[in-house]
Structure formats: structure tokens, C-alpha cells
Give the backbone structure.
Amino acid sequence: MSKVFWIASLCAAFLIVVFSIYLTMGEKNMNKKVLFILMPENYQDFEFNVPHQTLQSKGVTVDVAGLKPGVAKGKLGGSFTPNLLLSDLIESDFDKYDAVIIPGGPGSVEYLWGNKKLQDVVKYFNSKGKIVAAICYAVILPVQSGILKGKQATVFPTDEAKAILKNCEVDFVDKGCAVLTDDKIITAQGPKFANEFANEIIKMLK
């Protein structure tokens, strides 16, 4: 009897281990692909690094498109070399992605605000039912694209940023992350909400 019990226990333990591995691999290999758009300078390091690393840790395929060739430099001294150049991509290239993610930072004012080409990229992702996620001052990009008109969003809460939301008929909500599930749009206030921002993207990708 003890031998039979021992064998049964061993089999049960083996099945538990196999099932655990299955669940872990299932979570990590999400079979999803996302595109980050990274400014050439003065991006906010945490707003890029945290979601970038979190998504990779879950098995999401990540591409980073730069606005200029070469190394991008963060506000806090970090750096990253994008593997793509956004100007080389066309709409059919965007079809293979499930989301576009735009980190913010002080460089947003120069590189993202009022950028019609980037607005077209955001509108294309949104028109195809893909996720659009932006944080901090980068939120102004989807706001100015028009995809948030009549909807709620959050942004780094300066008077200037909130005034832009109001002028674009977007309702400012004072919270860390604002998630529009049906529209597949995620906005976040700033670097201290980078983890929440990353987790909301993962939830929406599943």
C-alpha cells in the first residue's frame, strides 16, 4: 500500500510541476507584439524602461521605433538604441502590432506635440482597433490626434497640458491611469505610475 501511495504521490507532484510550467509559459508567451515610439532625447527614463522591460518579461515581442537615427537619450541619463526608424515604416507595417506605446518626458513638447505624422500613426492604430497607450506629456499626442475627443484622459497635470485637453474637448481625470476599455486607449500621469501603466497594457493585451 505504501509503495502504491508513494507512486501516486510522485505522479501527482509531477503533474503539478508540469501544469505550473504550462501556466508560466502560457503567461510569458503572450504571442503579442507592440511598438514603442521613442523620442531622440529627453524622454522620461522610467516611462520607457518600466513598460519596455515588463512587457518583455511577459514574452511580448517589442520593437522600438526612433524618430531619428542613432542612440536616444533619456532625461535621467539613460540611453537606448531603437531597432527601427519610424520614418521607414508604412501603414502595412503597423498591422503586425497589437499596440503602440508612447513614453513621455520633457522632449514631448518638441517632438510629439503638434506632430501631424505621429498623429496619423496614432489614428491608424486606433482605427484598426489596436491599443494606443501614452504616458505623461506624451498623452498630448493622442489628444491632438482627435481619438480622445469627448472622452476621458489623464496627463501630467500642468496647467498647460490640462488646457490642451480642454481645447481638444477631452475631459481631464485626476488619476494615475485612465483606461478606456472599449476604445483600447490607456493614458497615465507620469513616471510614478509607470508600473500601473505597464500592467494596464498587459491586461488589455490579454
